[in-house]
Amino acid sequence: MAKLWAVIKREFLERVRNKWFIIVTVFGPIFFGVVMILPAYLSVRGMRDVKVSDIRIIDATGAGLGDRVATRLVGGPMGDASATQVQVVAPSEVAAAESAATKDVMAKVRRGYLVLDSLTLQEQKASYAGRNASSLGEMESIQNALRSALLGQRLEREGLDPKRVEALTRLKVQMKAERITDKGRGGSGLGSAIFGFIIAFLLYMMIVLYGQAILRGVLEEKTTRVAEVIVSSVSPDVLLAGKVIGVGAVGLLQVAIWLGSAVALYQFREPIFLKLGIPAAPALTLPNVPPSLIAALVLFFVLGYGLYAALFAAVGAMVSSQEDANQAAQPVVMLLVFSIIFAQPVMLNPTSRLSEIVSWIPFSAPVIMPIRMSSISVPWYELTATIAGVAVTMALCVWLSARIYRVGLLMYGKRPSMRELARWVRQA
After folding, report:
1. Residue 86 sits in which domain range?
2. 407 and which of 1, 167, 391, 424 could share a cystine (Cβ 3.0–4.6 Å)?
């Protein structure tokens, strides 16, 4: 136990005292804050310069729908609809009008053009082409204007006053989504989803960063022949356990500092957003995080980190150069990438069968299950079974990695084949 503690202390202090650890720990929250705030700032600033109304509307409906859309694109009946060019054509002239409009867009006379025809009135279908066709925000603005114009036209056909129609079709609804758990109200649903995604992303990043740190540490000790000296006084199993625990403690410390900084940044979000000119900071109620959820999240981090750290350590013991390490670590990295790929689908629909299956797989559960736990109430038996599965898989990986580590730490030369690895496991 004394030797294990000595290895843990060495691994922990060696990394905590590193200047790069201090820099990343201090400036990490600032970096993530910039990553979250800068896109919103640029989006708001970009939307101010957007001229969605600077398009041509080819109206072949014969019902004046183009003028209605043009009015809504500039902000209402009192706006200057001349910013949008409305070209009324017969159905047989649509193709020629589209050809001419395409040339104008290519010449940068207009940003794009919207085609309205009989299908627009009958089946609510329209087509748009332009340089800004890939801008989701601008396309949504045009689509909303068209939807409002169609609705207003239908209401006027039913005999309603045009001004009354305009007032009725310009409603903006703000809906607050609140999560209800088995214990009652659980705070903002959106806040819970974002919290779960942040936790899963942090777990993913910590596993990648510190798993790779173990790989590099093992490889460095092996290539510099330091391992030969260490193994003379400490058994390889104790050395492996000390590395995994020591580096994992560094990861937990860094995550705790980052989460504390994130909460502080969230508390001061409004003055920061206002200083940057963003009109409204998102009002998200922080989710109610019970101690049991925190304990489960920490447990998933420990188990997931232990699982992948053991695999990375085994990879470091197998190879003798950084180039071989990069290639040998790819299967382990692909398992992690497999986990994060499903993070967004699970966050959007945590109750789906796909979400359940992915959260049960031991190699993806440490990343996916925290998202489900933060979004919905996972049954205790399902959570227990998942934790047990990850724990058993981690124990198996640690056992295999320890046997590979025991032999491979003092082996040099070419990377072993699968048959040689199997022989190492049997002989260790």
Report:
1. 56-168
2. 424
